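Exercise 3.2. Students should predict the tertiary structure of the chain below and write it as structure tokens, then compare their answer with the key that follows.

Predict this chain's 3D structure.
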Amino acid sequence: MIGRDGELAILRTALERAATSHGGLVLISGEAGIGKSTLVAEAVRGARIAGGACWEGAPAYWPWIQVLRALGADDGVVRSADSAFELYDTVTGLLVGESPLVVVLEDLHWADPASLRLLEFVVQHTWFERLLVLATLRPGEVELSPALALKATTVTPGGLSRREVAELIAATTRHEPDEALVEQIAERAGGNPFFVEQLARLWQGGAALPGAVSAVVDSRLSRLPERVLDTLRTAAVLGRRFRADVLGTAMGREVARDLDQAVVAALIVPDAGGFLFVHDLIRESLYDSLTDRAARHGAALRALAGAPPAERAEHAFLAGSDEAPGLLMAAGRDAGSRLAPEEAALHYARALELSREPRARAEIGLELGTALHRAGDVAGARKAMDDALGMARALDQPDLLALAALKCHDLNLAEPGQWADFVRRAHGELVRDAGEGLDSAARDLSLLLAEQATDDEQLTYALLSRLGAIWGPGTLDERGELLDRLAGIARRAGDGQLAVDVASWRFSALLERGDPRYAEAHRTVLARAELPVQQHEALIERRLVAALTGRFDEAQELALAAYELGEQPAISRDDLRWTQLWSVELLRGRHEEADAVLAEMEAGGSLHTGLFRAVTAVQRGEAARARALLAEVMAGDEQYLRWMSPLWLRFQAQAAALTGDPSLIANARAALEPYAGQWALTATISVDGPFVHWIAVLDAALERWDEAAEGFTEAWRAADRLGALPWSVEARARLTEVMRARGQDPAELAAEVERDALAIGMAVRLPRPGDHVFRLDGEVWTLSFAGRTVRLPDSKGLRDLHLLLSSPGAEISAVRMLDPAGGEEVVASRSMGGDAVLDDTARASYRRRLEQLDDEIDRAAVRDDTERVARLDHERQALLQELRRAAGLGGRSRRLGDEAERARKAVTNRIRYTLRHLDERHPELAAHLRTAVSTGATCRYQPQAQTAWRL
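Answer key:
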């Protein structure tokens, strides 16, 4: 090791730290031949290591498979894991179990995306373990995630100095070079150690030094027979790693002796059942020397008949084969099924480059736009879609226009003007005004496309689009017919992925119907899910079932596992995780935790934050916010509400019930009743209870106790049929409130509810004997006494009683009760004489202050200080109101006796009216208050026995 003392010191410090306390990630970045591998080999001398190398075209997780083999572990876990998260967790556990350990990953610039995601998981979850990861890579040839870049320490070996070049020449040739030789080699090698060694050996062998670095490798290769070189050139086409049998098939002859000579020449080495070029520069030099690359890639394509789609597509593309477009499309679909949209986009872009047929180009462009959108490149997706739409317009084929319109709709990329154009040209009778009826248009276009489909692939997409366009409450029968057709296509085409998708959608439909057979459909999905996209869907289902049955902690873990696995085609991974976590926290009654998720959603710019905040508010009982949020959410667009319509219907019912507004309750009931026998399933992600439960909530708000009791009982039974314990708890808790309102004793049922809620860690509020409530929620009062609960609209008499109940035994002046915020305590404490409410001195003081306020308001207005203007104006209005209250007829001063008498009469009449109203709605409470409340110039609440109120 020459000239690498600083770099070695950094690596050895990291190794020492990993051996005693915690590890991390160190990246060794530099050009080919700079000595990255030599540096790592020197640094890890004596440490326990497990290594793997990346290479172009290798299968997913190839470097990690080598690491597992080095540890003697079963690398079959890569193929048998049910999900990416399970794989990540298993590999991380194996590595931690072997610590202290150094994992060395060579040539990270050739790592597949899946291996990089696994690396990110390992680094993030072993930061405090005795595990160090060292990775070599070329600068600028790999884009690491922000999480990896922030965690990594980067070591960048530079070129050797003149002195260090001299040392390396001497070590290589065992002769001291003169200054002229050092200068010549340093200049041509650029300080690169590999080139320095090669040039030094050429000089020692008596050869003239080449003028370019590439000639160093060429001179080394020139010593081999042409037959061996020809074999190595085809090997270079196959990649840095290759198998002898594949190479022989591609060459059409025996290659064993050629490879033996290459091993003796130290150009390749045996590796894992095949061979490996000792350096990238050797392979690259061989590949660059080819004059018949296309032919050799064609030979490689034929030799790799059973290889993965991506590997065959790569060779087909470079060979310019007629098979290339089809193979690239197959590779794109395969990448999509592995949740690798970036890779899929690359394959589709290449297919588009090679394709010449106009319609095929338009269809490939739509697939490219979809892949780019799923990869997060929205700008690229729009560009690809615009190009594809232009081709579709030029062809003017109705089915193609419909397909393009549906693709845009699925990705939410459609502009209203574009929609109008597509609809007009695709199907004349579907003309709509711009910006209206996008979902309706999507439904119609999907039917059109299904009618005109010429093959199973196009028919499948049309049916899937129809399924997505109609998804929501009230479409179960049509969705069932669509699923039957899709199942038939899956059987006919042997399409395993479509079969799993159909099973998953059947699971959702059965759950919406409240059919216990959903569990059988769920098991079918779990048993068949093999591809990552299927495993992703299985994780979502498992989380949903866990939450539905009250296994809340497991549900949260599964939500995080789905997030780690990657992007779901229909929803962003962040929105998916937020929705899952929030719905569970809300169901278990942990509102603060739900707020924390909402804060993260808002910071992330989620479109669903408004509706989720609204539902959280009504769940807390915030009636004032409920009315405001109800109006706000109702202003949302059709696309937003279509996918979230079950949650929207739930919110509409809760908000209407909380406000107590009969018209809002009637509207909510009309919206819910068509789905009375179904369950609310939002976006196939969260369960929002049986619809009959929310209808019963509306009945309870109108004190239709018999109907409410019947509805909550039906909801309870429906939940028990599905094993949905949280919703069973919720329905029974509401039923205890209804029973108490009907004069029944719910003690036994309440004890059951409390026990079940405690078992699953669910917070639930239950009415208890002697639980007295006099509470205002927005515009509705909840009054509970003697086992009966009623809800009344806000009134001044109820506010008077609330003030008295809040200070039992205290004398409160009627003047204060008439205007609690007006500061009348001083007035009420004075005698009931004939003094003026405001004397001349006070009146003059008020007027002087008004003049000052006018001046200050003018100055603040000039400075455009709107906040100060508003504050000063508020004070001004308060003073004017006080002056008006102190003035009688003709501007005469009002007397205190007049004010007190007016207050006495007003408060007494308000309380008497309220008690008469309570005689009809809650006679027990009315009787209690008549005996306990006294009115007059001062009022008091003094019950015969101590009574605790929740106010």
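Discussion points: Residues 429-436, 823-835, 888-892 have pLDDT under 50 and may be disordered. The longest strand covers residues 131-137.
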